[in-house]
Amino acid sequence: MTATPDDPFRLDGARALVTGASRGIGRATAVTLARAGADLALSARNQAALKETAALVEDEGRTAVLVPGDLAEPGTAEAVVDAAATALGGLDVVIHNAGVLPAQDDGTPTLVPLQDSAQVDWDHVLAVNLNATAALCRRAHRHLTASSRASLVLMSSLAGVAGTPRMEAYGASKAAQIALARSLAVGWAREGIRVNALCPGWTRTDMTSFAYSLEPLSEWLMAHVPLGRWAEPDEIARAALFLASPAASYLTGQALVLDGGVSVPDGGLAGISKPPSPFTD
Ligand SMILES: NC(=O)c1ccc[n+]([C@@H]2O[C@H](COP(=O)([O-])OP(=O)(O)OC[C@H]3O[C@@H](n4cnc5c(N)ncnc54)[C@H](OP(=O)(O)O)[C@@H]3O)[C@@H](O)[C@H]2O)c1
């Protein structure tokens, strides 16, 4: 289908900030928004990887600027938002996608029950996933109020709406993002700012490589996904574009769950057989 200039699914001329844009869902989202006509400010820690994303954005004929920073550091979220607005001449769209699981130094996620977990891991996950989200939203408000097509999307998770044993800090941070999106949606509605949360299920990225590369675990996880497979980052990116675009102009305060059907209770009626859990402890 050929896009037309007044296609509500396009973002021609929009100025968009995407955090966590160095890889995974964030990179796919940046490229998808660029393809829809937006100019991009790209944020994450890894500047070399951000430059690769910028090249992909420029391949789509759009502008890309880098606004790097470590969101675990207080003050970074505000600096990133301001730098993005300055570089692009304002902000119409913010896709706050950066996020972490608790992980070891080599990046392998630490998946242990809360009672066996360290407070320092809880603090780090909450600092990046929640405290930085609040700081980023607080600062984004002043820029989004100046836009006539303002949309803020928080990349939450299925973990924010479903029980996630061994990922309690992550699940709590993602549920809080949904609550924040709802509150801001109502609070900012009369200022013309739409706010939504997007809740992906199991998506094939660096964050989940520990799981999809481990056959018994991947097979067990996918047995719980009615569509029976991992999501690809592009599939999440298209939903982010929808939420950011005029196509979603009456949609605010929602948590859009994109999980291949995991969160839909089937009561066992679909007859999908589940292999035994690979967790032995
Ligand atoms: N993959 C899934 O199954 C899944 C499911 C539901 C929700 N999500 C959510 O989707 C979002 C993207 O996840 P992904 O799967 O694409 O993960 P990913 O491949 O691990 O990417 C995470 C992104 O966040 C950035 N980031 C991490 N820590 C940061 C920090 N301290 N400061 C600034 N940026 C930081 C990373 O960039 P640098 O390392 O360069 O800083 C990277 O760009 C996350 O919020 C995640 O919780 C993912």
From TrEMBL:
Keywords: Oxidoreductase. GO terms for molecular function: oxidoreductase activity, acting on the CH-OH group of donors, NAD or NADP as acceptor. Coiled coil: none annotated. Transmembrane segments: none annotated. SUPFAM superfamilies: NAD(P)-binding Rossmann-fold domains. Residues 14-205 form the Ketoreductase domain. Gene3D superfamilies: NAD(P)-binding Rossmann-like Domain (3.40.50.720). It holds the Pfam family adh_short_C2. Belongs to the short-chain dehydrogenases/reductases (SDR) family. This is Short-chain dehydrogenase. It comes from Streptomyces noursei. The lineage of its organism: Bacteria, Bacillati, Actinomycetota, Actinomycetes, Kitasatosporales.
